[in-house]
């Protein structure tokens, strides 16, 4: 019987919670790592803020701007910024760049409320900001919660005014109001997707009217006066601003046992942070290690800061040209097709409260390790990047040989829905790619949930991929 049991353990694959298998030393490292992560994402709530904080971390660990280097050699650590909303960091390897790179690519934008171009208005002596929601949200989740305002106003002279209101203990917060149950009879009969219209996501700002009775819209004027006193901006400056409304609370430990973290923006800053920390551990790799942090994934990876732009290719061409003596475009093309990418994005964790949308045998679970997702897409794998068996086997081997706890899963039942990542756009560059990241509960909500073991194993998985592929 003992022999058969041993054979069964060898032959069968089982997905299970891995906390009990951790040694005390590694468990301590895990909790320390996750505390650093919790603090980081509590402060970096927008793509610009994440980009700024990432650059500070990179510079403190010896990375220098790519523009400062005329030539590159093995061991050099460089980074470059894309319009304040994306970062590419690299550690140059000892192998020829044409042999390919090890790329970990994540996105640093998250679902939120964006201010409309002309946002400020007054109605019935109440001042509001009009918003246009960004990414896939459940609109009702954004009502009746404390909100903060983050962003920049770009002035005509080129000055950027940074705005953050709602994060300090003595700051005011803001909110989108909701109907009281007593008057919500009609609202409660609507579909959840229709109960809160997008045009009703107006952020309440204030109610105090200015002293001058001749001023029209005195409450709006008073808000503008307060903004002008604090930030020296006028209403027209809001037309050239990028201001986001996000939850006004930080990430917190979740559960009596503190084995999870709940907070805003973990899709996909949990993978961005772990990728960033992993590349810091790389000294002089065989293959060049690249950490790619992009914007706009939540709206299709469009635009100059999204994965569909040519920015990544352009930066890699510049890197190749600083390494290869007789550079040509063929060097870049050979490098891309010989490279492997971990598309560092979150996945859907099995939620026992909603078992009907997942297929248990092919679902990731909290604290069972980094999640590999062979394909994404929806309804017949539409829009998917489907990793080959060879790629899955290669990553499996790295993780198993270096004690990285991992699991595999898909995004819900067939025909239940679906989604995508930057993987398909990386694959369009003729590069092998597979999704690998942290499974989440309550994804795209203002309070997403991640397992600490999964966070740590994702960092460890990216690091071992950089060092051993």
Automatic annotation (TrEMBL):
Required cofactor names: Zn(2+)
GO annotation terms (biological process): proteolysis
Domain of life of the source: Bacteria
Matches recorded under InterPro entries: Peptidase_M18 (IPR001948), Peptidase_M18_dom2 (IPR023358)
Zinc as UniProt keyword: yes
Enzyme type, top EC level: hydrolase
The protein's name: M18 family aminopeptidase
Gene3D superfamilies given in the database record: Aminopeptidase i, Domain 2, Zn peptidases
Enzyme Commission number(s): 3.4.11.-
GO molecular function: aminopeptidase activity; metallopeptidase activity; zinc ion binding
Name of a matching Pfam family: Peptidase_M18
Example of a GO cellular component annotation carried by this entry: cytoplasm
Keyword Protease found: yes
Keywords annotated in UniProt: Aminopeptidase, Hydrolase, Metal-binding, Metalloprotease, Protease, Zinc
Protein family according to the UniProt entry: Belongs to the peptidase M18 family.
């Amino acid at each position: 019987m003992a022999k058969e049991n041993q054979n069964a353990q060898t032959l069968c694959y089982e997905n299970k919670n891995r906390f009990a298998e951790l040694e005390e030393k590694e468990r301590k490292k895990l909790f320390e790592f996750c505390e650093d992560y919790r603090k980081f994402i509590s402060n970096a709530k927008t793509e610009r803020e994440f980009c700024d904080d990432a650059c500070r971390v990179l510079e403190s660990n010896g990375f220098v701007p790519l523009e400062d280097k005329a030539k590159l050699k093995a061991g050099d650590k460089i980074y470059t910024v894309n319009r304040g909303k994306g970062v590419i960091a690299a550690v140059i390897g000892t192998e020829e760049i044409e042999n390919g790179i090890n790329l970990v690519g994540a996105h640093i934008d998250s679902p939120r409320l964006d201010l409309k171009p002309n946002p400020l208005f007054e109605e019935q002596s109440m001042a509001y900001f009009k918003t246009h929601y960004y990414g896939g949200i459940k609109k009702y989740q954004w009502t009746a919660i404390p909100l903060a305002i983050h962003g920049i106003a770009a002035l005509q002279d080129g000055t950027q005014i940074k705005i953050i209101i709602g994060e300090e203990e003595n700051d005011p917060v803001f909110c989108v109001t909701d109907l009281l149950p007593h008057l919500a009879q009609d609202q409660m009969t609507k579909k959840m997707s229709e109960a809160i219209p997008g045009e009703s996501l107006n952020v309440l700002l204030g109610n105090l009217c200015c002293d001058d009775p001749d001023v029209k819209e005195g409450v709006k004027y008073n808000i503008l006066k307060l903004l002008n006193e604090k930030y020296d901006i006028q209403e027209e400056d809001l037309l050239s601003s990028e201001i986001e409304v996000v939850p006004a609370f930080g990430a917190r430990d979740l559960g009596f046992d503190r084995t999870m973290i709940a907070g805003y923006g973990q899709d996909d800053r949990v993978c961005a942070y772990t990728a960033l920390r992993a590349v810091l551990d790389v000294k002089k790799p065989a293959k060049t290690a690249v950490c790619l942090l992009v914007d706009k994934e939540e709206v299709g990876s469009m635009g100059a800061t999204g994965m569909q732009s040519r920015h990544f290719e352009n930066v890699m061409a510049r890197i190749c040209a600083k390494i290869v003596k007789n550079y040509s475009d063929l060097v870049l093309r050979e490098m891309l097709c010989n490279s492997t990418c971990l598309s560092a994005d979150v996945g859907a964790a099995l939620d026992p409260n909603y078992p009907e949308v997942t297929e248990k045998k092919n679902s990731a679970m909290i604290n069972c390790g980094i999640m590999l997702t062979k394909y994404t897409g929806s309804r017949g794998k539409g829009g998917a990047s489907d990793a080959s068996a060879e790629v899955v086997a290669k990553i499996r081997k790295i993780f198993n040989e270096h004690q990285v706890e991992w699991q595999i899963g898909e995004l819900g039942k067939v025909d239940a829905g679906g989604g995508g990542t930057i993987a398909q756009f990386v694959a369009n560059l003729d590069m092998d790619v597979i999704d690998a990241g942290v499974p989440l509960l309550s994804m795209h909500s203002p309070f997403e949930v991640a397992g600490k073991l999964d966070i740590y194993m994702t960092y460890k998985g990216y690091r071992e991929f950089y060092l051993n592929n």
